[in-house]
Each structure stands twice: as C-alpha cells, then as structure tokens.
C-alpha cells in the first residue's frame, strides 16, 4: 500500500513474464464449483458463525498480547474452537520470539504547565530508569526532518513527531503514521535521544486512547523509551510547545524485553478429498495488542477465516483440496508467526494453491487483486464474477500480497490475493483500548466471510493451479 | 429538565400570580440599549476572547479537581485572567467542603473470564480495602428494581446497573443516567452491598473512557466503593453475565475523603455607572473533574461569561448596573461554590437584577426561558427579539433556573434565565478524559458569548427590575 507506483510497475513485469509461457493450459473452475460458490456466498451473507467466534474470543479471553498470561488461554480457546467447528485436523506449530512485557505507563508535562499525559509504550520499548525519565522535548515536523537533524540538537532530549493521520478508505496514511512509529524511535536513539514520543498513528482525532504498536528497535542495547500520545494529548503538548518556552516531559514506563517465549500457531485443516496435500490457506492472527480486546485486530480475521471454512466444511462433501485456517501467533510484534510458518513450510510452497489472510478489521471487502500465474488469471476472473454482486471490484493490475503473516509465504512463492477492506474507521480504533466487539458490524463481517468462502472453495476446486513455486512472485510489488 | 410537567404547571402559577399585581409599571429596555445589544451580539459572533480563555485554562492548568494541587493554580490563573481582562474589582470568597481525593483505580473480572475493566471511581466513593474488594456481581435493570430488591439478594455483592443513555438535544436522558449514579450507590449501601458499579452515565457508546461524577453518599460511614464502567466495558460485563455463571469482579480503588479543604469562588465586577450595588450575574464553574482538562465542563462556561463581560467592559462607558462574573469553586462535588455564595448573599438577593450560569458545554444556545416577575416579561421579550437572529427561541411557558451554581441564588429569589444549549454530544465527553479543548467549536462558543453579552447588557440597562426578592420564585419548577 505504501508503494503503489512500484506495485503497478512490477505487476506489469509479472504480466509480461506470463506471456512468455502462455502455452500452459489455463486454470479454470468447473461450473459446478462456481454454482456451489454462489450458494456459499448467499448463505454466508446470513451466517453468524464468524460473529459468534469473535464474540466468544473477545468475551472469554479479551486482550491477547503475545507471551502474556492470556497467550496460552487464547491458544486453548482456539484449539477448542477449531475442534468444535469440525476441522479434520487441529494442530500447533511452535513460534519463538523475544518476550516483551508492559506493566505500567505514565507520562506528564513537568514544565512549564504540570499535567498528566495519556500515552502508551510502544512495542520493544525499554522501561525508563527508576524515578522515570525527565527531559526536554525537541519537536520535528516529520521523520525526514529527524533523519536530517544534527545529533547535537537531539542528544539527551525526548524527540517528538506530531504527524496527524487522516481517514482514507484504503488506510494508506498509516504508511506515514506507522512509519514514524517504527523508524522514529531507532532513528532518535541513533542520534543520542533520551526518549521518543509521537502523536498516535491513528485517525481518532478526539479520543484519549493512544495507539500502541511496533517499533523497529533491533538491539535492546540501542533502544530508548518510546511511547505514543493520544491525539488530544498531542494537541495539548503542541499547544504548550507553542508558548515558546522549554517544555520538560517525564516518562515513567515499566516495560521491556524479558527473555524469550515460545507460543504457537494454531492450525486447522479440512482435509481435501482428491488432493489432501494441496492447500488453500486463509487465516488471521490470534494475538492482539493489550489495551483493547483485539476485536477488529484481529479477532475479526480469525473469525472470518473460521466462518468461511465452517461453511465449506458443512458442504455435502469435502473440497478437492485441503482448506487450512491458521490462527497466527504474535503477528503484532513483527510477524513472528508468519515468518516461522514460512520458514518451516518454504520447501512445500508449490503445494499451496492460493492464500490470503484477513487483518484489516471487519469493514467490507471492496476490492480484490491477485499475484498468480498468467494462466490462472481466468480463474481469478471467475472468482471475481461471483464476488461482484457483494460489492467486490477486481483490479487486474495490482498484485496480491497475502495479508500480514501470509505475506511471508507469498514471499516464498505462494500465489496470493489481496482482499482490500474498507478501512475508513479502522485506524480510529487500531491498537487502542477501543478495539472492542462493538466496533464490528455483524453484516459487514458476514460479507467478509462470503468473500473468503467463495475464493477458498473455488481455488480448492480449480482445474489447475495458480502458479505457486519457489520464488514465483519475487518483486511483484505486493506490499501489504 | 427532569420534571417538565411540574415546570409547566408551576410556570402557570407564576403567571397567574403575576396578573394579580399587574398595576406595577412594566420593566422595559431603552431603545439605545437595544441598539447597543445588537452591536454586542454582532461583535461577539466574531470575537475569540472566550476561546482564548478556555484554551489558556485547559492548556496552562488542565484538570482542576476541587482541592487538588491544581485548585490553587486554577484560582491564581482566574484572578490573573479577570485582572487582565480589565474587571474593576477582582476578589475571592471562601468555600469550605470535604476534600475527596483520587489516587488510582483498577477493576477486573476475576471469574469466569479474567480480564481488566476500564472504570473510574465516583465522587465521595471510599477506597477499597488493601488488596481490593472482590465480590460477586448482582445485576439490576434499573434504579427502581434495586430499590425494590430484597436486601438478602444484595448483601455482600457488587450491585451493577446497566442503563444505557441516548443522545438528545436537551440531554434529558442524563436525568436517568445521572440519577442512577447519584442514588444507586447509597441505595445499594443501605441494602448491605459491598460495592456499586454502573454503566457510565454517558452517550459515547463506543469509547473506553468512563464517566465519573457525583454520588449521593451523605455519610462516609455508610458509603461503599462505587465506580462507573465505560460503555464497552459495561457491554463486556453484560456479555459475561449472559453466560449465566456467577461473575466475580475485583475493584481496587484508592480514593476517599481526607478532611476538609477551603477553596474560593473567584469574582470579578464591572462596576455599574448608575447603580453599582445592583448586579447582573453570570458565570461558570472553575473546578472540573480530573480525567479530562475541563474544557466543556466547565472551562467553556467560565470563558463564555468572561468573553461576554469583556465586550461590555470595552463599551465606551460602564453599564448602568454592575456586571458580575463568578468562577465558582467545586460545583462538581455538590454545588459547594454556588451554595456558599447563595448563603452569603441571600439577604441581598433583591439587588440581583438577573442571572444565569453556563454549564452545559459549548454547543449553541437554542432556547431561552425565564423566571421573572410578570411586569418584566416584556423586557424578556425584548431580549428574545435580539437573540432570535442567532438561533435562540423563546419559550415563555418554561421557568428559568439560573444554571447550576446560580440555581442556588434563584432558590433564594433571584430572577433567572435558563439558556438551553444543544447538548447532543455533551454527554459523550462529560466527566471523562475526553473533555478536552478539541471538543469546542470556536464559532459555537462565540454564539454563546453573543447570547450572554446581549442579555447581560440589556438587563443591566433596563428601566426597572425583573422581580428578584426573597423567595420570589419559590416552586416555579425550575430544575436545572
């Protein structure tokens, strides 16, 4: 999403490459499968399995920060839920990662106008020293300005960047806001800053609910305390800075990395009748940030995949290929579940028929794009035709990236879709305490289930494949 | 607002009473004063003094819980601001009240599904014992149901009432929500409950920002820990309760009454040229709840009154009567500033020409009503005529209550207005962390200033009075 020009260019390259091997037989979807997909679509639009799943997850488990006390509870919940929905195989695969913990977080303007600030520590932020970190604020208008700054202006200070995100349907402004959150802290640290603050990478201009999220800290020894202010608190800090006096802020963060943790991807298979070792894979991530209950991020994704698979499971007979649902471990702290899965299964990438993950909330899918071999373009068009009546446009020029964790399998060579959801309000609630069940519209969630049920089933029944092979889509520009 | 039928009935009584003494000369406003009021109105609509005042207060001071460290800072701010705006006299009057402090507050569902709850302690709530209060929830659909409950069903439990407030222009649903918050805790305590929880008395259905506010606890020895859940947390608790298993909640509140505190009403006079001892009084309250910065409640009210008075101050000559602005101390914990003022000045009530306080946010005024003597009804109609072009309707049947603190002077016999503001969104933010400057629309704030400048000036210049006298408006049904 952050690189549309590159995406278009490289998609053209894929198409050009495709023409050179056009002698292969085209992949097609049999008429009976199309008809069943239409039935699945219509049924899904009135099915509430997904809503019941995300309701159960957010009510019975709630926040699911990777490695927290709720991590194993969520895993047990997932295993039980997969089994209850009738998956033929339910299993887990280990995912090991650094354990980051958050215990408490406070912030305050110390001078010139003492008052508390509502903030949240960012992922992999170290804690502040005992008694907190008190330092002067130095403000930069952008990440680029910080990168260009003389370290002398930054040393010993708390860097603040106040970029204000705006709502867009495709959520592209998160490319800037999230980029500041990720790159800002290590950039400031490298210049000798004592700490880092940003205006939350979120579009809720009026809410005192700061947005947490990942930083790009790679080395704990080179990391500094980093936190996000809520939008109104950022407004307040900027008003105070506008008085032109030195502004001193105190950060008191009790958080940090505490060794390693081993979590698990939870995987369920509906085993294919004809080609059990060929897999259509869908999913979401089971972990969530801790302030909210992980409803839109990403209980919805897990629920959409489970809801779609359940409808396929309930058909009179198993699909031709295996339908796999993965509830990934620790997406939030750096795609740990997705990367572990891709490493473990890279050699089998050719057996992955098609895949994508849902991880942009619960808004309706409005666009599909795909990275597939040229001979499968017709099959994608067949899928698009079934999805068109429920509001999904097909953009044949854009690549398909596979979503968040499954982007890693796509990088290995798995044919993949991008199913763009309406993200207009997603970044109002993303990574905040407000990520709760009430943000999900059951009817919009059902539309997502319909989309996933349709493409999953049609790919599972296709005559032919979509081009998965080691390195098949290298450089297609998919940036999900 | 909670008793419209009573209000209409008693307003009729006032009118009936009026006819009996219609021989008095009518109060009228001279043509020159009407013309000046029109100029003030037009000027106010483009004046940003009030916005600058509330910006200054919320930025430089922020939260102003009565008796907190910010209480004297806010007082010094107010004294300096009154002086800077040119008031002829600036002085304070002491207000003594119980000091309630809030240090920390946490809540959690312990069983069957452990997870934290976002909540806020209510005013005058005692703290929980060391280690917190853990007890089973007993749910009631309404305050009436709690009142009717057998104490045996409540004893030792945490009472929960989940009334959901809805947005209305006049904010009348706060009569129910606020009533549960005030009466629910002592009612539960009297039946032996261990604690009290309610769904926040607020209309922000999707925000994790709980609404604090006052309880009706009168006796610390008979008080129990009481708190409000945010709306999404109330949804969550109700979903958990719907599983039909016993639900155990832990409250950990560090708060309570700590002796007494003496704060101050801050008062500024623009001294009348002809009748310096006759006063038109307007104001707001200087204290605020602590989670937010007290922008709409009630920085806006203080700012509106100061903005209006400043425009009158800047006229070529002082008004005939004194214009008084009061920034009241500790309205939030029980009208302490307003009651102290009324007690101190009850004997002079006949010298208070007319008054009202702004304390319902920063939405535009859409309606005026008045409790005045019948012979002053024509003068009120003259005021209404000047206000009509800026969207203010006049309801001659409803009484005027004087606002929150000044309701106490009205109870003593002061002629008073009610200036109804559009409160559609007021209870989204009221008493929450979200009560911040960004909720104020400068243009809507300016409309309020125009309304206050017009009526204040016209009342100050009137030929005749509005009927203030000891006990003059007893039982007029004003419930502000």
Automatic annotation (TrEMBL), chains A, B:
Residues 1-22 form the signal peptide. It is found in: Endoplasmic reticulum; Golgi apparatus; Lysosome; Secreted. InterPro entries: CPQ, Peptidase_M28. It comes from the Bacteria. The keyword Lyase does not apply. Keywords: Carboxypeptidase, Endoplasmic reticulum, Glycoprotein, Golgi apparatus, Hydrolase, Lysosome, Metal-binding, Metalloprotease, Protease, Secreted, Signal, Zinc, Zymogen. SUPFAM superfamilies: Zn-dependent exopeptidases. The keyword Protease applies. Residues 265-453 form the Peptidase M28 domain. Homodimer. The monomeric form is inactive while the homodimer is active. This is Carboxypeptidase Q. It comes from Dyella mobilis.
